[in-house]
Amino acid sequence: MTDLDLDKLARRTPPAADPSARGQALAAAMQAFDDAEKNATAAQGSTDGGRRSSMFNWIWSPIMNRRLLAGSALATLLVVPVAGLVTYELVRNGTVPLTAETEIATKPINQDVRARKQEAKKNDITAEETAVIVSRPEDLGGMTAKSKAAADANSGADADSGQATDMLAAEPAPLAESDDEKAAAVMSESLAVGGAANLQSLSRTIVQPSATADAIVMPPEDRERFASADPNPVKSVSTDPVSTFSADVDTASYSYVRGSLLGGSLPDADAVRVEELVNYFPYDWKGPETAETPFNATVTVMPTPWNKNTELLHIGIKGFETVATEQPAANLVFLIDVSGSMDEPAKLPLLKSAFRLLVGKLKDTDTVSIVTYAGNAGVVLEPTQAKERDTILSAIDNLQPGGSTAGAEGIEAAYRLAQKAFKKDGVNRVMLATDGDFNVGPASDEELKRVIEERRKSGIFLSVLGFGRGNYNDGMMQTLAQNGNGTAAYIDTLAEAQKTLVEEAGSSLFPIAKDVKFQIEFNPERIAEYRLVGYETRVLNREDFNNDKVDAGDIGSGHRVTAIYEVTPKGSPAVLNDPLRYGKEEAATATSGGDTSELAFLKMRWKKPNSDTSELVTLPVTDANAVADVNAASADVRFSVAVAAFGQKLKGVSALQDYAYGSILGLAEAAKGNDPFGYRAEFLKLVQLAGGLSGEKVE
Question: In this predicted structure, what is the pLDDT of residue 645?
Fold first, then answer.
């Protein structure tokens, strides 16, 4: 008889007691009792002088006792460890995996449940029968106290019923692999033993929903992808005096790092982009007077907090801030990922709330379109003026997840809508919101990069909003944003959506300069070595600075960009590179003109939003920009340096190996300054969390 047969019997109602059978059983019991009384005086046992033993024992015992003691001892040594292992497994797991049947525990739970249900259907066991058993305890025959008493009296029930009961009592319950099987096991035991207490336990077990079916047996697969880039190396001024990089105003990395730390784990090193951590915070850098010069640079040279033998060259850029009433009209296309991977609370539901916030920020003359993609792209909302807010919000609210992700097809459809409602003197932008799981269609970074570059030339830019964890494709998001003349942000909370899409909407939506590049030349008479902090994915070749065909980052209205170099003064004991033997240093000195008052020379190049020709601004860095002590620098400079130290520490930069999180915390606390939105206070908590997760004591 199989376990399913036993389960089936356990769910059947036993037949009613037969009065005639009861009488026969009682009569037979009385007759057996009388016979026992009559034989009470009979002699017991055997009169033989010795115990009876088999011939085998008579031969084997002397051999084992006298001649094979060593063999017996050896057998004992083999048996005892095996018995100990079996006992350990019984205590630890409650069962020992000795047969192939127990390997069923490794199967996925949902598969087991489906198979069990199919087998139950074959054996005519339905959910309705189970419900009847639970709801009608009087039909369980012997489960209540009253019926149990009747069953005790009815010892003469028919043979078939008695045999079935004996089998159920003797056979152990089947191995339970899920809550459903546990319920079946409890039912079998209750039917065999009887009793109100077991019935009550049985009822509780069956009527409660199964939690195991949806439980995570194994940790979820982590499919998050990041663009890997090693930290910038230390370069010698004698051989590489010029450093060139593109502006970067993205902040996605900070939000991701924050989510990891708040979730109780240190972030992946590749997920940490130091410049995005630094640029996340608003700083009070001095801005330009007019829009003719779209941004202004503030330079500070200060001692390095983590290395007394080096200095920091700190550059703070502030973009011209346009008045909201003077901002051009916006033509926005919301390209929204509604694939199955977005069906999580931190993805599509949060996305819809974020876009509702943005719609409330738009002017009546702005235009909104909505395109969704999931397997196939579809137009949810044709170009609609923002004054029709109810129509736009209704379209957002009705979005539902489902399907795979044809991201490239959705991007094409979004660009077609943007071109359809194109505003010649306005801002035309596609806003892609996704977890980055492009798993259908052209999915390579290079193919999508080509599409974005072609559309960028027509005046339609692309910004990216990332959502969710588990399969977040950060590398893809960076590729799209950088080549679409847009920004990349990671939205993990509604507060972050408020910051990105409402408080900083002007910076995110309205560019004041595009293809912004920085180049700095160090004076070999003063500086021996340098290292650019962050911007690993934004480094350009020296010749790219003057090439207007090379794309670079954009700066929006009021944007702030911060860049930090760690420089080693000439003659410092921190110099890592040996001097050259064959005269390169003399040549470098000759080109500098021997001017020792300058430490470096800063050049900035950019294009106006509607121009293809770049403009140039230069600024020498001299001793006048230097401060003698860290505390002499402004609070904004010191706080940004603390954030840079934190990012480098998380990324595993060797220069910060001996600089403790407690020191970073102290530097940031002393420079917290004005913090109206609480961003800096939150940063202090993140430093403490990172220190604790790293095993450091942070005070």
Answer: 98
For residue 476, give the H/E element and its range. Answer: helix 474-483
Query: CA dihedral defined by 440, 446, 451, 457, rounded to 10 degrees?
Result: 160
pLDDT for the residue 80: 66
Q: What is the mean pLDDT of residues 396-415?
A: 78
Q: Which of 437, 450, 440 is nearest to 480 (CA)?
A: 450
Q: How far apart are the first and last CA of the chain?
A: 68
Residue 369: closest CA among 423, 443, 442, 405: 423
Nearest alpha-carbon partner for 356 in 458, 475, 231, 491: 491
Q: Give tens-digit pLDDT for 610-622.
A: 888 999 999 999 9
Q: Look up residue 389 and give its two tokens.
A: 């807010």
Q: In the numeric block, which tokens belong to residue 10? A: 């356990």
Give per-residue pLDDT as tens, 422-461.
998 889 999 999 887 655 445 566 777 777 888 888 889 9
Q: Which amino acid is at 381?
A: L
- Three-state DSSP state, 117: helix
| Element (DSSP H or E) covering residue 490 | strand 488-491
Which residues partner with 615 through β-bridges?
606
Neighbours of 131 (CB within 10 A): 12
- Percentage of residues in the chain with pLDDT exceeding 90? 45
Query: What does DSSP say about strands 242-246 and 511-522: parallel, antiparallel, or unpaired?
Result: antiparallel
